[in-house]
Amino acid sequence: MLFAGILAATSVFITSCSKDDTEAPVITLLGDNPYELEMLDTYSDPGATAEDNEDGDISSSISVDASGIENRLPGNYEVYYSVTDAAGNTGSATRSVDVIATTAALAKTYNVADTCGSGASAVTYSYTQTITANNSTTIGFNKFADYAGNTGIVATIADNGTITMAQQNALDIGSTLDDHRFSGNGSVTINGFVLNYTDENITTSSIATCRAWFTRQ
Question: With pLDDT > 70 as the criterion, what percentage of the chain qualifies?
Answer without folding.
Answer: 91
